[in-house]
Write a structure and sequence with these properties.
The chain contains one helix and ten strands; from the N terminus they run H-E-E-E-E-E-E-E-E-E-E. With 199 residues, it is an alpha+beta fold.
Length: 199
């Protein structure tokens, strides 16, 4: 092959290699950005039963009264008991409620856990506003120690204008406590509220 053709081929190869490296870097960047972007999307829309975060009580009072049910679970292998103080409450939209969950370490050693949550039906997540919650904060309990964990929330009165909520009379707030991921385990592989990896 003549030297000029060899130089042209080498130049094309470098361009292809640079393009492939750029694509690989873009894919790595997208993978790292996917988790926080997905979390932000869920928080903004209530997608997948993700609740909203409120800085204070609602200034409005609605007309509808819905049943809010509470579901408390512990992942296999975690020696804790966990239950809501009440199985359900009737709540008017716009009214702030405080519900306590009781948790106890049934083992004879110090243990820690993190609670994940969701709301069902999923469409209701956009209207379920938490003011204070123990979810995603690591909880530490000594041997046989118990604690009461509060959740403060309200149902946004604007749900009364949402046609998808017209036939929803009851919501379920569900928590599951998991052992925290080990330092060697990436956060993206920590369990989600359904027990699978959080992707």
């Amino acid at each position: 092959m003549d030297p000029r053709a060899q130089q042209a081929q080498a130049k094309r190869n470098r361009r292809v290699a640079a393009f492939a490296a750029g694509v690989a870097l873009a894919m790595i960047g997208a993978a790292y950005a996917a988790v926080p972007l997905y979390a932000a999307f869920c928080r903004a829309t209530g997608f997948a039963g993700t609740t909203q975060v409120a800085s204070g009580a609602s200034g409005l009072r609605g007309q509808r009264v819905l049943d809010v049910r509470f579901d408390a679970n512990v992942a296999p292998g975690l020696p804790w008991s966990f239950e809501a103080e009440t199985p359900s409450i009737a709540l008017r939209t716009g009214v702030t409620a405080t519900v306590f969950f009781r948790v106890r370490n049934r083992s004879m050693r110090d243990t820690s856990a993190i609670a994940a949550y969701n709301v069902s039906p999923e469409v209701s997540g956009a209207w379920f506003d938490k003011i204070s919650c123990f979810c995603f904060a690591e909880q530490h309990l000594g041997p046989g120690e118990s604690a009461e964990l509060p959740v403060v929330f309200f149902l946004d009165p604007r749900l009364e204008q949402d046609e998808t909520m017209a036939h929803v009379d009851a919501l379920t707030l569900s928590y599951t406590f998991f052992a925290p991921p080990s330092p060697a385990q990436p956060l993206a592989l920590a369990p989600d509220a359904k027990g699978g990896p959080r992707l």
